[in-house]
Amino acid sequence: MSLSTLRATFQRWLFRVSGPEPAPIHLGQRRIFVLPTRFGVALGATLFVMLLASINYALSLGFALTFLIGGVAWVSIHHAFRNLVDLSIAPGRVEPVFCGSPARFGILLDNATLRPRPGLNLWPTGTPPAARQAPFDLPPETVSAREVAIDTPARGWLTLPRLTLETRHPLGLIRAWSLFQPDLRCLVYPAPEAKAPPLPFGSDERTGELGRGKGREDFAGLRHHQPADAPRHVAWKTVARGGPWRTKEFDGAGARSVALDWQQLPAGMGTEERLSRLTRWIIDADEAGLEFGLRLPGVDFPPARGPAHRQACLGALALFGHPHD
Fold first, then answer.
1. For all residues of the chain together, what is the average pLDDT?
2. Where are the membrane-spanning stretches (predicted)?
């Protein structure tokens, strides 16, 4: 058994965190750990020297000062521990993100007691001190929503790692902390291609009620202008008045839609490059209000539009090649 495996096993036994935990997570006495900070260790060494000097020279005032400061430091242990005990943690809200953007996990801290919890700090375990957020206070009988940002190096499901909740209240002599891992994950979409070619428009000859789309017969409204739009469909009157560029949309039997097909991409493109380009095209088509369809190996989304269709297509790209998800 390797050293890293032994260390991980020891940490799971010591901190009693072996994976995502069901909500709510209650911080009881056995889940809170207390140790002196560097400042606390230095103060302890100073008090020991003061005690030796007081014994050697029989200084009554030295004994009084040593035990007074030592008593205050001892009481701070109780306050640091009490600042975390009986807190409850639950997973909050998390929105899908594109690869490369930080995933922001919502964490709900519930303080059901009548005492405030000052000087709390929350971060992913292993975060260096320079990257940690500033401490925050938790009022009594309050549920506070905090955010934890996690880097997204790859697409797919990203599980929230183990978190650390720490306090050094009230004097900074004692560090009390607890580790936990809420059951929460974020869907990471592929990173959109920075300079993708124009949208691949296809023709859809459907007729009747199912064929209503971007045709050339009846005016249906305006949408954001795209570089691939024909100049004759630009709302020139709006542009002449100093307004934003808009393109006219028409309903008719000859519907015009965007066909996004995995097989139609260049043969030399890799899997991630294909997913990146399809992601960019989905974003552009959705922002333009266009109807688009997506065809992947084993998955086929018929032409549609709207937030639900956009999320379904982006989700299929995010989990492409991960059949267990």
1. 85
2. 32-51
0.90 exceeded by the pTM?
no
With b for 16 or more beta-carbon neighbours within 10 A and e for fewer, the 196-235 pattern comes to eeebebbebeeeeeeebbbbbeeebebbebbeebeeebbb
> What's residue 244's pLDDT?
76
Binning pLDDT at 50, 70 and 90, where does residue 206 land? very low
188 CB-contact burial (10 Å; exposed 0-12 / middle 13-18 / buried 19+): buried
Tokens 């269709």 map to which residue? Answer: 309
Q: How confident is the model at residue 131 (pLDDT cuts 50, 70, 90)?
A: confident
Helix axes 271-287, 307-318, angle to 10 degrees: 170
Residue pLDDT, tens place only, 276-318: 999 999 999 888 888 899 999 989 999 998 899 999 999 999 9
Residue 165: closest CA among 117, 130, 115: 117
pLDDT in the model for residue 15: 64
Pairwise CA distance, residues 274 & 276, whole Å: 5
Residue 8 CB contacts under 8 Å (≥ 6 apart), including other chains = none
Residue whose C-alpha is closest to residue 272's, from 154, 110, 146: 154
- Say whether the peptide bond before residue 198 is cis (omega within 30 degrees of 0): no
146, 258, 308 from 281: Cα distances, Å: 34, 9, 16
> Rg (Cα) of the chain, in Å, rounded?
30
pLDDT of 119 above 60: yes
Q: What pLDDT is recorded for position 26?
A: 94
221-227 own/partner pairs: CB under 8 Å, 24+ apart: 221/248, 221/249, 222/246, 222/247, 222/248, 222/249, 223/247, 223/249, 223/288, 223/289, 223/290, 224/287, 224/288, 224/289, 226/198, 226/199, 226/284, 226/288, 227/198
Where are the domains positioned within the chain?
15-188, 201-318
